């Protein structure tokens, strides 16, 4: 009986252990659900970090570098290459910038199937040295960098998958009628620093780009506003051209504009409601020939009208009525290098209750020498920390040269947000 009783006790203990294990098992784990509790993970800096393993040996051109941690990328930049090496079929990101490449033949891309990004910027490529259709065959290509080359024409055909095309700093002077056809997914087109003039608009090249959100045409030879831009546009860069007039109601077709850059043009007069846009946040009109201010929409936050010929800022024109339920969002105004002799009327703080900074700087009151208002920078509603930061920034601003400002403002960055 003693032996049997001991066996019974052992049997009961075994059954209890099995039952507890059954109760403690989380069936959610097996079916992909979220567990009820998780053991917290604590980072151990002494634990060796392993690069993710690729399911097959990573093939790489001998001239390039394929990091094990990023097996889909091939880095061939800054290597004084004169030709494009053969590209393995698995590569999705190809970096060839800052080389001496002059041609884009089809050969190296023969086996490429899934490539999504190609960076060929800062090379010596000319259009006639690009094999016809070499890019169009890359049906998964999303981003193509060709800025800082020697392109005389727009490179086409291009794949319909393309979303971002960067062609700044080339010698492109015309856009053929069919150059931008078949690009329904294009969101960003950068054509800054080329040789484009008003003749490129005859064929309405941008009208069918229904998803275009950012168009950069800065540093060209434009004299008029580009017509027939798609209503999807949100960022428009036209600085450093020779535009002298904005047609009335021009922006009615562009209700989604967030940022507009038109500094360094020949603007003299702006129709009153030109910028009455519901989403406009940032407006650059510095370095023009403006004599009067204009209506400021409720949404605008940053206004740059420096280096113009404004003698008096009429706040009533900027803000005809007060609406306490829809206060204007303006927080920053830059008005240096105008012809102001007195600060902006205090009525501005009723119209723009959120305004924090008005940068007066030096004013071009006389042709012989600039003068400075008693209040070079006006700030309000700043915490001590913000005030100190603003003072530091102002000191840095005073140390910068005019060339620094022009270099900063002259190019609308393709990744602008």
Automatic annotation (TrEMBL):
One of the Pfam families matching this protein, by short name: LRR_1
Biased composition (Acidic residues): 400-409
Keyword flag Isomerase: no
GO cellular component, one term: extracellular space
GO BP: cell adhesion
Keywords: Cell adhesion, Disulfide bond, Extracellular matrix, Glycoprotein, Leucine-rich repeat, Proteoglycan, Repeat, Secreted, Signal, Sulfation
Intracellular or extracellular location(s): Secreted, Extracellular space, Extracellular matrix
Keyword Signal: yes
Signal peptide: 1-20
Domain of life: Eukaryota
Domain LRRNT: 59-93
Renumbered residue ranges of the record's region Disordered: 389-417
Quaternary structure, from the entry: Binds the alpha(V)beta(3)-integrin.
Function field: May be implicated in biomineralization processes. Has a function in binding of osteoblasts via the alpha(V)beta(3)-integrin.
Family classification: Belongs to the small leucine-rich proteoglycan (SLRP) family. SLRP class II subfamily.
Name of the protein described by the UniProt record: Osteomodulin
Source species: Serinus canaria (Island canary)
Gene name per UniProt: OMD
